[in-house]
Specification:
By secondary structure, the protein is of the alpha/beta class. The chain has a single domain, classed as Nucleotidyltransferase, domain 5. 31% of the residues lie in helices and 16% in strands. The chain has 8 helices and 7 strands, in the order ααββββαβαβαβααα. A 7-stranded mixed sheet has the order 1-7-4-3-2-5-6. A hairpin with a 5-residue loop joins strand 2 and strand 3. Helix 5 packs across helix 7. The longest helix has 13 residues. The protein is globular, with a radius of gyration of 20 Å. The chain starts with 11 loop residues before the first helix and ends in a 15-residue tail after the last helix. The C terminus is likely disordered.
Length: 238
């Protein structure tokens, strides 16, 4: 993780010349020591161009999540959509494994039980034959199955990243870790290793965000239900 500032023999002019000659998606790796794959990277975008400092999300921005389920790892990513600029901000993540669905469900609901999502939950539980989707719906998650077209999803995410319409809070270490290693092999196939949040992001972009809802709209729906409880914060949704 050494940066150019740790190399005393490089002059300012030399750094500027080197910077101009480096492809944008390699600049963080070369200048800051941030791990980044070169030609094999699926999203060859400079990390510095897509990460932002956390901020309070406006109440009129719809929110949704994408979820990738599994025993070894269940992951979720939450997005808020600035419709005026058509920009999605990834602002929260969930990353845990080898625990039962009720534990995962509690982790998702803790970020706002009113937030809908899209989840890769089409599998069937081998113990009792119950569909994973039905398990999580029964546990209180508002989820549907996503569009799982891999290449189409990657293209949609890439379009947003490359045009500045998908940003990521700097406080998502697991997402950043996966992003830096998300790659294709020598045959052009996606390497299926540590890609749970990358998949969850595709589900969010392809399906989840279209289901997005604002905390104000969620409150209005909830007030009309038989389970209304006062005191929820309209900014956080909790």
């Amino acid at each position: 993780m050494a940066t150019w500032d740790d190399v005393p023999h490089l002059t300012t002019q030399q750094k500027e010349d080197l910077w101009d000659g480096i492809p944008p998606y390699q600049r963080d790796a070369r200048s800051k020591g941030v791990p980044q794959l070169g030609s094999g990277a699926i999203y060859p975008v400079a990390e510095s161009s897509i990460t932002v400092d956390p901020f309070e999300i406006p109440v009129h921005w719809p929110r949704a999540f994408g979820m990738d389920t599994g025993w070894n790892k269940t992951a979720g990513i939450w997005g808020a959509w600035d419709r005026e600029s058509d920009t999605i901000y990834l602002y929260s993540e969930y990353y845990a494994g080898k625990v039962e669905p009720p534990i995962h469900a509690d982790g998702f609901k803790a970020r706002g039980s009113w937030i809908p999502g899209a989840a890769d939950a089409a599998a069937t539980n081998q113990d009792d034959g119950v569909k994973v989707l039905d398990i999580y719906v029964g546990l209180g998650l508002d989820i549907v199955l996503p569009n799982k077209a891999v290449e189409a999803g990657i293209y949609c995410v890439w379009q947003r990243l490359s045009t500045g319409r998908l940003k990521v809070f700097k406080t998502l270490p697991n997402w950043l870790g996966e992003f830096r290693l998300y790659r294709r092999d020598e045959k052009g196939k996606v390497v299926k290793e540590r890609d749970h949040l990358m998949d969850a992001m595709r589900y969010l972009v392809m399906t989840g965000m279209a289901r997005g809802i604002t905390p104000v709209a969620a409150d209005e729906e909830y007030e009309d239900s038989d389970n209304y409880v006062t005191g929820r914060n309209r900014t956080t949704g909790y």
